[in-house]
Amino acid sequence: QGQLVESGGGLVKPGGSLRLSCAASGFRFNDAYMNWIRQTPGKGLEWISYISGSSSTIYYAESVQGRFIISRDNDKNSLSLQMSSLTPEDTALYYCVKGYTIGDAFDLWGHGTMVIVSS
Amino acid sequence: SYVLTQPPSVSVAPGQTATITCGGNNIGIKSVHWYQQMPGQAPVMVINYDTDRPSGIPERFSGSKSANAATLTISRVEAGDEADYYCQVWDVSSDHPGVFGGGTKLTVL
């Protein structure tokens, strides 16, 4: 079934940057569509970014477009999210998530890494 | 951007049937997926492509869809079904395709 383990979360000041990582195992990572999805404490889920297996197709939510960059290293079975110009509204639990079949659903979730943006 | 609308809460007695709706413009032409999120845990997919149930998901969980709304139905509700439920679509016509509904809190009375 596979496993996803996120890391890199923490406390950062407004305007700062942070890089999240996700280590994947137990499935063919280089064929997998991958996503980052976040959840504000006590609130709902927000999809924020998608990357295809070859990195040829990338999408972002409007809320992070121009500030976040998704990338992957298929040799290392890893996914990353470089976040910059962070605001308190970016405070959330960030999940690394594997896409299902053609990538339009989400069938494997990590446990998440918490990002807190506060002065 | 595409919007999915869910009721904030649904309450049902044990053994009864819970229905959670998900509305969206022309949702009938989109594939709808459903997720269950227990407190403190990551979401789990319980229905994909409107009606398909992943392996390991009880048969009590089913999905359906009309032209105007998708529905998650949980039959013979148990206390352990109490959770947040989210619908989701992939809006292929958009540059920002991932869309979740606001979530529905299912309370088992």
Question: What does this entry look like structurally?
Answer:
The complex is a heterodimer of chains A (119) and B (109). With 119 residues, chain A is mainly β. Chain A is 0% helix and 53% strand. Chain A has no helices and 11 strands. In chain A, a hairpin with a 6-residue loop joins strand 5 (45-51) and strand 6 (58-60). The N and C termini of chain A lie far apart (40 Å). The mean pLDDT of chain A is 96. In chain B, strands 1, 3, 4, 7, 8 and 9 form a 6-stranded mixed β-sheet that branches. A 3-stranded antiparallel β-sheet of chain B has the order 2-6-5, with no helix packed on it. In chain B, a hairpin with a 6-residue loop joins strand 3 and strand 4 (44-47). At the A-B interface, strand 5 and strand 10 of A face strand 3, strand 7 and strand 8 of B.
Question: Features of this protein?
Answer:
heterodimer; A: 119 residues; mainly beta; seven-stranded mixed β-sheet; four-stranded antiparallel β-sheet; 11 strands; 0% helix; 53% strand; B: 109 residues; six-stranded mixed β-sheet
Largest interface: A-B, 24 and 27 residues
Instruction: Report, as a whole number of angstroms, the end-to-end distance of chain B.
Output: 36 Å
Distance between the termini of chain A: 40 Å
Q: Number of helix segments of chain A?
A: 0
Based on CA inertia axes, which overall geometry of chain B fits? Answer: globular
Whole-number mean pLDDT of chain A: 96
Oligomeric grouping of the chains: heterodimer
Low-confidence stretches of chain B: none
Order of SSEs of chain B: EEEEEEEEE
Q: For the report, how would you describe the main beta sheet of chain B?
A: 6 strands, mixed
Order of helices and strands of chain A: EEEEEEEEEEE
Portion in beta strands of chain B:
35-45%
Q: Helices and strands of chain B: which structural class?
A: mainly beta
- Rounded radius of gyration of chain A (Å): 13 Å
Q: What percentage of amino acids of chain A are in beta strands? A: over 45%
Number of strands of chain A: 11
Question: Helical proportion of chain A?
Answer: under 10%
Derived from helix and strand composition plus strand pairing, the structural class of chain A reads mainly beta
How can the largest sheet of chain A be summarized?
Answer: 7 strands, mixed
